[in-house]
Amino acid sequence: MNGITIENLNVWFGDYEDRVDAVKGASFSVPKGGSFGLVGESGSGKSTILRAIMGLFDTWSGKIEVLGETLTHKRDREFYRKVQMVFQDPYASLHPRQSVDQVLSETLSLHGFKDIDARISKLLEDVGLGPAFRFRYPHQLSGGQRQRVAIARALAPEPEILLLDEPTSALDVSVQAEILNLLSDLRAERKLTYLMVSHDLAVVGHLCHDIAVMQLGKIVEVLSIEDMRALQTREDYTRTLLQASMGYELRG
């Protein structure tokens, strides 16, 4: 069974002459327990696909299937038990007046968990933060620590799927590696399915098995990470994108 199946997905904004087609006929699948990347230039539609899956847009057509269930335009609480999202900016995704304890308590309570105290301690341990961080506020945390809290919040409902929207792009390079290693370990330990958006191909190569390359709202090619590293592509656009992005990480 696939974790995520997308077939002929179209997402648009506005009507008539003001209509903008952000995603056009996108199709791909992510096997359960797999890790799949969406790459492309800014404005190519990558993050729009994640938000459509999360139910943040009503204006879409096509098929979105999660864990064997075809989604409608409404999402219930059970969906958010299965699917969670980690956003790009850890500075914006946490409420500045809520402590780490409040952030995690609120999420756990919302999803009906009772043993909240023990669960918060375990979540903090799982993301590499000790008990000393529990009652701190976002302004008392570094960017990497904030993103660890955001990951802990996403893990709180015990989801099977994480949608990762540029989860390291707002962080320093040294911290990026720590967060990527954390995400890799969590996927292995919890048998999670990842769908990740990034413009950084080295980041995608670290975490994903396969990628879809997007251009102007369309998926132009789907290829394995091995083919990406070897520049084994069918499309000129993909080859140009890879060559422009190649650094020591991709060559190594």
Notable traits:
4-stranded antiparallel beta sheet; 11 helices; 252 residues; 26% strand; alpha/beta; 10 strands; single chain; Rossmann fold
CATH class: Alpha Beta
Tell me the CATH topology: Rossmann fold
Overall, the morphology is globular
Query: Spans with pLDDT under 50 lasting ≥5 residues?
Result: 248-252
Report the strand count.
10
How is the largest sheet built, in terms of strand order? 6-7-8-3-9-10
Question: Structural class of the helix and strand makeup?
Answer: alpha/beta
Query: What count of structural domains?
Result: 1
Fraction of residues in helices?
Answer: 25-40%
Round the mean pLDDT to the nearest integer and report it.
93
Query: How far apart lie the N and C ends?
Result: 33 Å
- Count of runs of 4 or more consecutive helical residues: 11
Any idea what the radius of gyration is? Answer: 18 Å
Q: List SSEs in N-to-C order.
A: EEEHEEHEHHHHEHEHEEHHH
CATH architecture: 3-Layer(aba) Sandwich
The portion of residues forming beta strands comes to 25-35%
Question: Main sheet?
Answer: 6 strands, mixed
CATH superfamily: P-loop containing nucleotide triphosphate hydrolases
Report what the structure shows.
The protein has 252 residues and is α/β, with parallel strands linked by helices. The chain has a single domain, classed as P-loop containing nucleotide triphosphate hydrolases (Rossmann fold). It is 38% helix and 26% strand. The chain has helices spanning 46-53, 77-82, 90-93, 100-110, 116-126, 143-155, 173-190, 201-207, 225-229, 236-245, 248-251; strands at 2-13, 20-31, 35-40, 60-66, 69-70, 83-86, 161-165, 193-197, 210-215, 218-224. The strands form two sheets. Strands 6-7-8-3-9-10 form a six-stranded mixed sheet, sandwiched between helices. Strand 7 (161-165), helix 7 (173-190) and strand 8 (193-197) form a beta-alpha-beta unit. The two termini are 33 Å apart.
